[in-house]
Write a structure and sequence with these properties.
The complex is a heterodimer of chains A (91) and B (354). By secondary structure, chain A is an alpha+beta fold. Chain A has one domain. Chain A has two helices and four strands, in the order E-E-H-E-E-H. The C terminus of chain A is likely disordered. Chain B has 354 residues and is α/β, with parallel strands linked by helices. Chain B has a single domain, classed as Neutral Protease Domain 2 (Neutral Protease, domain 2), CATH 1.10.390.10. Helix content of chain B is 41%, strand content 9%. In chain B, a hairpin with a 4-residue loop joins strand 4 and strand 5. In chain B, helix 5 runs parallel beside helix 6. The two termini of chain B are 28 Å apart. The N terminus of chain B is likely disordered. The chains are: A alpha+beta (91), B alpha/beta (354). Chains A and B meet through strand 1, strand 2, strand 3, strand 4 and helix 2 of A and helix 1, helix 2, strand 4, helix 4 and helix 5 of B.
């Protein structure tokens, strides 16, 4: 299963994409449960020029602000970035 | 852009050719990727205080205090704890740190634009102290306004230099502070792109006034000098020619649209706020160029009047904003004058219906 992270925003407005192929077992045990319980979206907390992360694991996808990228979410993004160094479009 | 109708959250503004190109150049992006990874690992909770201080304090009656410039620059020491250690306060001599001194000078130049040109004291109009933090994070490729202060990263050294190098970036961040106390534009979709554009407008004007440049002499670039020599580009954005600021074999081409025909629909970047800002940016440039002289005078005054209009709609669209600028021009300079005509023509040229 593919982890895809699209980081957008920042004052530069440049989008970076990272992805990594993980086993179904890893996705189901480590990452999919996380995506079922995303940080509450709060448009009031949109902070100018901070990054936004679109994270998808297979067909599940969430969007979270940079400020929410802590703990397991950081690990997930790190996992996608560590993957194979390949950048490709989300499917 | 690529976008799946079934899964709108997986839209990407990155075209496949760019993704392929990045994949082909892992070496040049390695440092940036490593720096960003460190940033992720160190990410602390950010002060969620943007909603505070939305309203400027009411000056006490009979007060003898005159609002004035009060700056403090902090050093985060490459950590992500705000604000960090104070390294330069108002009136103190320069430090030996270029980032701290650039931030200090940038706060001053921004204060001067708003104070001298529009009679506004600081971001809140009531002399609020201006705070900046430099050396935020390790290799942090960004600058932002967190609702209370400006925060500047050092850049990864491979794509980006330190963000304090650009006066337009400093002006841009503080302008977000001004918007927070005035139009309060929602940071999403068209209103978000207007928030970004107004920040670019005043960021550019801070630099133009500091350098004494007329509209015809100015570069109209945002973030000039931020790229390392390895990148083929002049800056982050071009207000005069959106979409032409950079064209690099790794970063690709500047994706900003120059008029409404190129408006980008995306879920990324809060709905493309840093992309679609190219459209109102160019409208400002066109209006300022048509009027000539110093852009912070008439064009800047019209934009300032627009965002400081009471009861301005926070969810403003491009069309509503355009109409508001025309109204502001007529109000200050008279209906049918050169100013309102220039503003109307500018919006027409970028295909925004007034």
């Amino acid at each position: 299963m593919r982890l895809v992270v699209v980081r957008s925003g920042g004052i530069a407005g440049m989008t970076r994409t990272w992805s990594s192929e993980v086993s179904s077992q890893e996705a189901e045990e480590r990452w999919l449960p996380l995506l079922q319980d995303p940080p509450a979206a709060d448009a009031q907390k949109d902070v100018p020029d901070r990054f936004t992360y679109e994270i998808s694991v297979g067909k599940a996808a969430v969007t979270i602000p940079e400020e929410s990228l802590q703990g397991r979410w950081r690990e997930l993004v790190d996992r996608a970035r560590k993957g194979n160094g390949e950048a490709r479009a989300p499917e | 852009m690529t976008c799946s109708a079934k899964s709108p959250t997986s839209c990407s503004i990155v075209p496949p050719y760019l993704l392929a190109r990045i994949a082909e150049h892992p070496d040049r992006l390695a440092a940036a990727a490593d720096a960003a990874k460190r940033t992720l690992l160190e990410q602390p909770a950010v002060v969620e205080s943007r909603m505070q201080h939305r309203t400027a304090p009411i000056p006490g009656s009979g007060t003898a205090l005159t609002p004035k410039l009060r700056r403090t620059v902090f050093d985060a020491g490459q950590k992500q704890d705000l604000p960090g250690i104070p390294v330069r306060t108002e009136g103190a001599p320069p430090t030996s740190d270029p980032a701290a001194d650039e931030a200090y000078d940038g706060l001053g130049a921004t204060y001067n634009l708003f104070s001298d040109a529009y009679g506004r004291s600081s971001v809140d109009g009531a002399g609020r102290p201006l705070h900046a933090t430099v050396h935020y994070g390790r290799g942090y490729d960004n600058a932002f306004w967190d609702g209370n202060q400006m925060v500047l990263g050092d850049g990864d050294g491979e794509v980006f230099e330190r963000f304090s190098k650009s006066l337009t970036v400093i002006g841009h961040e503080l302008a977000h502070g001004v918007i927070q106390y005035t139009a309060r534009l929602v940071y999403r979709g068209q209103a978000g792109a207007l928030n970004e554009s107004v920040s670019d407008v005043f960021g550019a004007l801070v630099e133009q006034k500091f350098l004494g440049q007329s509209a015809g002499e100015a570069s109209w670039l945002i973030g000039e000098g931020l790229f390392t020599p390895a990148v083929s580009g002049q800056g982050l954005r071009s207000m005069s020619a959106p979409g032409t600021a950079y064209d690099d074999d790794v970063l690709g081409k500047d994706p900003q649209p120059a008029d409404m025909s190129g408006y980008v629909e995306t879920s990324a970047d809060n709905g493309g706020v840093h992309l679609n800002s190219g459209i109102p940016n160019r409208a400002f440039y066109l209006a300022a160029s048509r009027l000539g002289g110093y852009a912070w005078e008439r064009a800047g005054q019209i934009w300032y009047d627009t965002i400081t209009e009471p009861n301005f709609p926070a969810d403003c669209t491009f069309s509503l904003f355009a109409a508001a600028t025309v109204t502001a021009a007529e109000k200050r300079y008279g209906a049918g004058g050169a100013e309102s005509s220039a503003v109307q023509a500018a919006w027409k040229e970028v295909n925004v219906v007034v």
